[in-house]
């Protein structure tokens, strides 16, 4: 069984920051991760990032999207590569994947925030109950 893996890192300026868009295709599953570099990264910084932090990227958040198989014909691959270079830095599929990841993170943080508020309210209630009990005893 052969596993096909393909990864690309595109670095572009979005008007405010230098951003890296890491696209990863593994067995037909498409995943994407966005990295904000801030100032323009040098070639050494990009290489250091790719070698040390690439494994930490979360390409496949909740679900991964399916991709088509790459063409085996070299001329077709060359045409596809030229077509990809003409397209903007961030593909629609990458934008959709990033949006899905952002929504999942937002739902998760809202759930954590809600739980924390409930715990704090419970703690305040327990504190009031204890204070009332102490007052009732005459302390």
What this model shows, in words?
The chain is an alpha+beta fold. It has one domain. The chain is elongated. The longest helix has 45 residues, at 92-136. The chain contains three helices and four strands; from the N terminus they run βββαβαα. The chain has a four-stranded antiparallel beta sheet with strand order 1-2-3-4.
Estimate the helix proportion, in percent.
Answer: 40-55%
**Total helical elements:** 3
Uncertain parts: 62-67
Overall average residue pLDDT:
79
Instruction: Please trace the helix and strand order, writing H or E for each element.
Output: EEEHEHH
Form type? elongated
What distance lies between the first and last C-alpha atoms, to the nearest angstrom?
Answer: 76 Å
Q: How many strands, what sense, and barrel or not for the largest sheet?
A: 4 strands, antiparallel
- What's the domain count? 1
Strand residue content: 15-25%
Q: How do the strands of the widest beta sheet line up side by side?
A: 1-2-3-4
Output the radius of gyration. 24 Å
Total number of beta strands: 4
Sequence-ordered SSE layout with sheet pairings:
Elements (H helix, E strand, L loop, with lengths): L4 E9 L4 E9 L2 E10 L4 H10 L12 E2 L7 H13 L5 H45 L3
Antiparallel strand pairs: 1-2, 2-3, 3-4
């Amino acid at each position: 069984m052969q596993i096909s893996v393909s990864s690309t890192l595109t670095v572009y300026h979005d008007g405010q920051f230098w951003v890296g868009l890491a696209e990863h295709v593994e067995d037909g599953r498409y995943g994407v991760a966005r990295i904000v570099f801030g100032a323009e990264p040098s070639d050494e910084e990009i290489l250091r990032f790719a070698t040390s932090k690439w494994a930490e990227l979360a390409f496949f958040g909740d679900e991964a999207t399916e991709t088509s198989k790459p063409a085996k014909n070299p001329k077709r691959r060359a045409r596809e590569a030229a077509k990809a270079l003409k397209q903007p830095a961030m593909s629609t599929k990458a934008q959709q994947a990033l949006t899905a990841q952002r929504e999942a993170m937002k739902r998760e943080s809202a759930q954590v925030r809600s739980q924390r508020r409930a715990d704090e309210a419970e703690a305040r209630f327990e504190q009031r109950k204890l204070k009332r009990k102490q007052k009732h005893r005459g302390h």
